[in-house]
Structures
1.
Amino acid sequence: MAFLCKGFLRAAAKRGLSSQFVQTPLKSQRSLSSMDPLPNKLLQLPSSLIKSTLDSATRFPQDNPHFSWDSLLACLPSLSSDKARLVLEWKLEKMLKGNERDYDQYLYLMSLCEKIRNASLAMHVFTSMEVHGIKPTTSLFNSLIHACLSSKDSITALSLFEIMQNSEDYKPNDETYETFIIGFSSLGNTDAMKSWYLAKKAAGYCATFQTYESLVSGCIKARDFDGADRFYDEIKSTGIMPSETVLENLLEGLCRRRRFNQVKEFIKSRLEVWQEISVKMAEKVVGLYSEHGKVEEMEELLSTVVESGQAVTVLSQVNSGIIRMYATLNRLDDVEYSVGRMLKQGLSFRCADDVEKVICCYFKEEAYDRLDQFLEHIKRTHKLTKSTYDLLVAGYRRAGLSQRLDTVIKDMELAGVWR
């Protein structure tokens, strides 16, 4: 069986697996600061110098006291696909040269290959382990399958599963089926995703939080809203408390279908059970109401989140949505009232785009004195960006207001954004 496994893996490696790189954030407690100069250096170097630079950093540790493998991992998403591959290749070469026998080290390296979506490199890690006498395990196969699916190579992933089925030492387990469910969910292939879910149950494994999250998100991504509803009903029937991710996806489905009453009931029930809604939930509802001009519903949502004592981020999201909506509708009185209400709540504008929408509303109404008052109020809590100043300059020029134009230009010079 080991011979069969080796033969297949080498053939697959020769065929060439997809090595498409997609930047995926890696969690790290370290920042790319002056205390970690190597990652910043790698960003500037050509690919041809990556490995030699890493060799120098480890060969003379006394000259590079801040060298850290963790900092290199944090920098992977910022590197090009070729540089990220070279960093991981370098790590594998060092492990093999040092006759590394720690199974977990190889498993971790394969997980990094999956994160940068390079299945061919994951395959290289796998075959290198076999050559060095480290026997494959179910976990290693699962990691390799995950890398293949993340690289959209489902054919190789399925072939690996067949090898596992025919083996004695690395049979498919719960994680194997879960990996396929997650993979096909991410790919938006709901038919395959559902088939693997049924296969998981047929194999005697129970659905987990992760299973249902993948099933529901996969259905929503594919606009299979009925499927998402069925899985949600299944979650409730099992007595499992749905996760926040599941609920956010369900809410997204309701918003896409414009189920306004159900959206309102969803938010109400969420607050009754959990006493809070997430920023993502607020964002989806605000987006729905904004797209369809549901002013009254937006105001009602704001009253609800204020009364229920929601987090500042949620309050800010809803306030901004209301202000943008009134500005788009050119309802200047309502804009000013909403801005004043937001400021009284101790909040400020979330982004320059919101400020600029309000400024455009003032220009359309030719309410220049009121615009001056607005700018004075928000300058206390919001720093104007160059794009906002540029908008003011263009608006005052168009209106022929030379005195106000001169004032804005002076403000830009003081702020260091005039050029």
2.
Amino acid sequence: MSNTPTRNVSLTTELTAYINAQVASGHYSNASEVVRAGLRLLIERDHALTANARPAAHEGARADYRPGR
């Protein structure tokens, strides 16, 4: 990941403590891994929300359909 751009972010004390605890537990090697895992979960959630919203939009369109209009 040597060509990966870096970002500076400000975190609350609670988020910093959580990241430190995750690294200390051995689940992650460093803070960047924790943040990347969190971002991946947000992406998955957003994809799931988008996928779940599509059928509802189609249902609404069918409910508004009136023959002869």
3.
Amino acid sequence: MDREEALRLLQTSRNKIDEMDELLIDLIEKRTLLARDILNAKLVLGIEIEDKKREEYIHTKIKEIAREKNIDEVSLTRIIKILTDMSKEEQKKILRR
């Protein structure tokens, strides 16, 4: 690979990452919007916003997926923790309205 090919590869790869970042943000938005549905169901079922069993299930599943896909388990777990925290915060915000 010469310098010109390397520059093209770098730019192409960065463009793809930018597109993926937008897709990830769209998915995070959709995931967060589901908080309203989840909250409504939890209220009817008498379930607390913080559902430790569900969170344990999610983290176990994420660890398995990380191993299968050879992704750093600790980093992926941190990302999922951020997402679950966002969902809980959204539910709390909805309750305050």
4.
Amino acid sequence: MATGPDAAAGKPGATARNTEYRIAHLQERLVGEELAEMGMRIEYRGDTVHITGTASTAGDREAILRVAAEELPDMPVRADIVLADATAPDHPEEIS
């Protein structure tokens, strides 16, 4: 349910603006808190929020999903977050 002056007046688009505001707040939390995840892309498509990007660790990915659930508890969230491969190579690279 949308809140705010637009929703109270029954103006079209009030729900979309509210969702955009909530997504912006989520983005601010991801950048500003201990995560400092600046590489996450958050989009609202249809009725689903899509989060895409690369996280440093599995713990960071879980933290991103936790914050998203806190900020958007009543919205479906689809996360396509991959982990960065920070392991050392097991063999030298051959350059020709």
